[in-house]
Write a structure and sequence with these properties.
single chain, about 270 residues, alpha+beta, endopeptidase fold (from Nostoc punctiforme), 5 helices, rod-shaped, disordered N terminus
Length: about 270
């Protein structure tokens, strides 16, 4: 548009330049129409300059509007992204809180179940001991007949109640036992506190031969005072122990896994 008007301006100025020499060469009188033509042609560049300025101003204003619109669009996009990030963070925090709540509830449930099993085991052992206390028993304790109402009966009954429980290294409850944890808990039912580990338990009380065992004796595998495994003799050539993760707490015969020795604490 500006180039077009520049061409027009150039053409007009050329016309003016053509007229002016005629007047200069002696044309003394110009009729009215000629004077109006010259006047119009002389004023045309000023008109074109004003129009060009108006066009540039309009272009500048249009660019300003477009820049403002681009800024507004960018601000809207950033606000949208910030909102999405905040919503994602809030959702992640909510999910973490819900997970933590579920884990707390699961732990509480496990604790209640474990306490209930231990209570039931103690009640069962006490009930069996009470029932047998009214019976007269005689004979060699080594034959496997546990004297009712005795500490040995309490120990054996508790051990029987744990059959089928899982083996867990370091376990000391009905949710999972290791060998020495089971022996310690069984003796605790009879009011006797034993050391925690098998090495120490195998050095307690007095040593007894495997041919003279009584129910409640502690069997050990390894050397006395440094045994690597212990179990409880329950009579009739059988024992109960927390054997390993594959089988858990089981009842076995002495022939199945002959112990190295035994000690008597009761």
């Amino acid at each position: 548009m500006i180039a077009l008007r520049t061409g027009i301006t150039t053409g007009v100025l050329g016309t003016v330049a053509t007229v002016s020499p005629v007047a200069a060469e002696g044309a003394t009188d110009l009729d009215e129409r000629d004077r109006e033509s010259v006047t119009m042609e002389l004023n045309l560049p000023s008109f074109l300059d004003s129009d060009t300025a108006l066009t540039a101003d309009a272009l500048w204003r249009q660019g300003e509007v477009q820049a403002r619109q681009a800024t507004e669009r960018q601000a809207a996009a950033e606000a949208k992204a910030a909102k999405a990030a905040a919503e994602a963070e809030a959702a992640a925090e909510k999910a973490a809180q819900e997970k933590a709540a579920r884990e707390r509830a699961a732990r509480k449930k496990q604790a209640r179940e474990r306490a209930a099993r231990e209570k039931a085991a103690r009640a069962k052992a006490a009930e069996a001991a009470t029932a047998r206390s009214a019976q007269a028993a005689a004979g060699n304790p080594g034959s496997g007949n546990v004297l009712p109402g005795t500490a040995a009966a309490t120990v054996v009954e508790f051990a029987r109640a744990q059959l089928g429980s899982a083996y867990i290294m370091g376990g000391t409850s009905s949710s999972g036992w290791d060998c020495s944890g089971l022996v310690q808990a069984a003796y605790r039912q009879a009011g006797i506190d034993l050391p925690r580990v098998s090495q120490s338990q195998s050095g307690m009380g007095t040593s007894v031969s495997l041919s003279g065992l009584r129910a409640g004796d502690i069997l050990y595998w390894g050397a006395p005072g440094s045994a690597y495994h212990v179990a409880l003799y329950i009579g009739e050539g059988r024992f109960i122990g927390a054997q390993n993760p594959s089988v858990g707490v089981v009842e076995r015969t002495l022939d199945h896994d002959p112990p190295s020795g035994a000690v008597r604490v009761l």
